[in-house]
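Structure (tokenized):
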């Protein structure tokens, strides 16, 4: 993958693609979609069998016809196909000899699923990362410290995307906080990628070790964060920005496609998806019918170029909305807004609540540290929730006063008061994690 040698003041990594008028972009999508459908039908036992049942032959005349006729896939379909007939399974469309890289999902909602890539898939993947990095302001004179896990995690190779762009790649990965802080101090990176939870935790660890994050790590210009909803919550981004004295950009990816499929531009109004490689739609979670732009639904994705395992109308489980209007940055590619996971939404007194709604409140409340845990449970045939928080560092405000303040804020923002707010002393909640934090505990009988 050759470096592009763009002028540093060039706004776009691929101007023609990123600013392509929507009619032209949708024409390109239809061409690539038909190539993907034909390849999947000819080479994937799963798609050939399932589409034959519906009388589909891997060709459509329009995107609308595709949305109307082609069935969804999901995690369960991936699991059911995995290892059937071949190592990568029936959904795969190439022989194993053509696969050069594989990642796996975390397995947090079931058996981990493998994600294979051909050489061309992998190069497309890294070119997409370069575009998103450039969009976030990274340039060849930057030093990029990769703080994400390398162990089978699809975000691990994203450091190569920074290198394609021309930046220095510092391959640190998921190491203990003390080691990571040492690397940051020693190598003075300008960009770093981690989860929102870890960006916050690392700042707290730095303070504990006697550092001033804004002064002792002054080389840092930007934190890229992903893996949790917090990156798209303004109060969470601001908390990290204030702690480190940096700007924060949210990226989004999923193992079923790429390490990062979408990312923020400087206006931070949603995440631009790499729409020349991925077709995105938003559907009603119950009916599967498309919902209007701007209306909440389940976001689904279709690969347009990936051959090792095409993913056609993949139901991600993410609830959010999409915006196809041109962004103020000039990019024409759809922006996605993710509110949370379908399996983590809960309904209290007929109100839909996502953990991200609660995080917004907690991160914005000066009486607490910003750490939290949510417990959802059934009581007397109704769903209730409680929230645990930590009192702000150095605060002597009475615990019951802090709890009342958080309760009132949650009622105002979500529309429903929690059954209880539990307040802990600073660092006593025990929710902080080296990378992804476990903040949501679902004890509802229906969730078992």
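Design, position by position:
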């Amino acid at each position: 993958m050759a470096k592009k040698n763009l002028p540093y003041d060039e706004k776009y990594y691929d101007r023609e693609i990123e600013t392509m008028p929507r009619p032209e972009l949708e024409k390109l999508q239809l061409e690539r979609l038909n190539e993907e459908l034909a390849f999947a039908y000819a080479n994937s036992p799963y798609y050939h069998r399932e589409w034959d049942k519906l009388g589909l032959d891997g060709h459509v005349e329009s995107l609308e016809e595709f949305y109307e006729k082609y069935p969804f896939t999901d995690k369960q379909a991936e699991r059911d196909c995995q290892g059937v007939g071949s190592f990568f399974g029936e959904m795969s469309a190439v022989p194993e000899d053509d696969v050069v890289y594989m990642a796996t999902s975390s397995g947090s909602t079931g058996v981990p699923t493998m994600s294979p890539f051909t050489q061309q898939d992998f190069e497309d993947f890294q070119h997409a990362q370069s575009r998103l990095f450039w969009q976030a302001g990274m340039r060849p004179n930057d030093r990029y410290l990769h703080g994400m896990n390398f162990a089978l995690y699809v975000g691990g190779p994203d450091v190569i995307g920074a290198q394609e762009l021309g930046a220095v790649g510092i391959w640190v990965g998921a190491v203990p906080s003390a080691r990571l802080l040492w690397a940051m101090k020693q190598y003075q990176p300008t960009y770093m990628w981690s989860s929102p939870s870890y960006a916050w935790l690392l700042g707290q660890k730095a303070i504990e070790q006697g550092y001033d994050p804004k002064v002792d790590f002054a080389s840092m210009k930007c934190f890229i964060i992903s893996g949790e909803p917090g990156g798209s919550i303004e109060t969470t981004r601001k908390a990290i920005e204030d702690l480190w004295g940096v700007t924060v950009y949210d990226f989004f990816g999923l193992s079923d496609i790429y390490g990062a499929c979408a990312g923020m531009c400087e206006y931070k109004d949603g995440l631009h998806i790499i729409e020349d490689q991925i077709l995105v739609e938003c559907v009603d979670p119950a009916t599967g019918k498309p919902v209007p732009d701007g209306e909440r639904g389940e976001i689904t994705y279709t690969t347009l170029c990936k051959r090792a395992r095409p993913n056609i109308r993949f139901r991600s489980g993410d609830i959010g909305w999409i915006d196809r209007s041109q962004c103020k940055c000039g990019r024409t590619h759809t922006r996605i807004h993710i509110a949370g996971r379908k399996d983590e939404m809960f309904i209290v007194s007929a109100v839909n609540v996502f953990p991200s709604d609660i995080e917004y409140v907690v991160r914005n409340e000066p009486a607490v540290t910003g750490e939290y845990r949510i417990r959802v449970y059934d009581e007397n045939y109704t769903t209730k929730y409680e929230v645990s928080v930590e009192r702000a560092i150095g605060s002597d405000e009475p615990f019951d006063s802090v709890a009342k303040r958080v309760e009132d804020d949650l009622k105002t923002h979500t529309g429903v008061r929690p059954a209880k707010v539990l307040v802990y002393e600073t660092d006593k909640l025990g929710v902080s994690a080296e990378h992804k934090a476990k903040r949501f505990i679902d004890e509802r009988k229906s969730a078992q």
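Reviewer-requested clarification: The chain has two domains: 1-343, 345-447. The two ends are 47 Å apart (CA to CA).
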